[in-house]
Amino acid sequence: MPERIVIVGAGLGGARAALSLRERGFAGEITLIGDETHAPYDRPPLSKQALLDEPDPRLIAPLEALAQADITHIGGVRVDSIDRAQRCVILNNGISKRYDKLLLATGARPRMLPGLRRSERLLTLRTHDDAVAIRERLTPGARMIVIGGGFIGLELAATARWRGLAVTVIEGLPRLMARAVPAEIAAVMEARHREEGVEILLESAVAAVREKDDEIHVELQDGSVVAGEFAVVGIGAIPNDELAAQTGLLVDNGIAVDRFMRTSDPDIYAVGDCCSFPAAIFGDRRIRLESWRSAQDQGTLVAGNMLGGRKPFVDVPWSWSDQYDLTLQVAGLATTTTKSVRRDLGDGAFILFHLEDEGRIVAASGIGIGNAVGRDIRLAEMLIAAQAKPSMAALGSSNIKLKSLLAA
Ligand SMILES: Cc1cc2nc3c(=O)[nH]c(=O)nc-3n(C[C@H](O)[C@H](O)[C@H](O)COP(=O)(O)OP(=O)(O)OC[C@H]3O[C@@H](n4cnc5c(N)ncnc54)[C@H](O)[C@@H]3O)c2cc1C
Question: How many alpha carbons fall within 13 Å on the CB side of residue 360?
Answer without folding.
Answer: 13
